[in-house]
Fold this protein.
Amino acid sequence: MTTFPAYADNFEIYPKDGEAARHLAPLFGGLSRIDFSLSVDDPKVNQGQLASSFDTALETALRAGGTTPFKLPLPPDVPQELDFAFAFGGRTVAVEIEKANREKILRDFLKCHIYLHVGAHFAVVALPRNYAHKHGVWDLFEFGMERYNECRTYGFGTAVNLGRILLLGFDQREAATNRLLSKAIREEMRTRAAAQHAAT
């Protein structure tokens, strides 16, 4: 496995109104730089896809901000576990991190409704502004805001429940150069991982 140091910064919440924003803005407003790692396990598998440790790094950073772990009981027919959950200021929060597929964001909103239904006070979907893939870069945060606003406009979810869902946007950077992650940097990492794999 080849590992590359990275970090996230420039955190932003959306929407800035609503119950979730009022309760969680002090917590997320305290986030600055969060270090994590990107890794390539095998350059020959799945086009050398980069794996990310951002989920555990975000959870650790929020813990430092005053949250405590929380186990959210999910129905047995829900096949996927959430990334993590926490308690803060007397409220419980479920967190989904969408690090790759913009087409899954609406599914993430549905999962948020499940979390709210089974007892979470709020749900958060974390979305990078620069997800690098072989064809370019997707701004998942922008895409998520568009889908969220369409949900509001066309009634895909009640106003009350949508007000309990918060999007968290962030930038991803390569730690060695402070460059924003891009298609070119992704290819550099895959090339270096392939060279290291061939040398072993």
Summary: The CA atoms of residues 94 and 123 lie 5 Å apart. Helices lie at 19-28, 54-64, 105-117, 140-154, 159-162, 183-199.
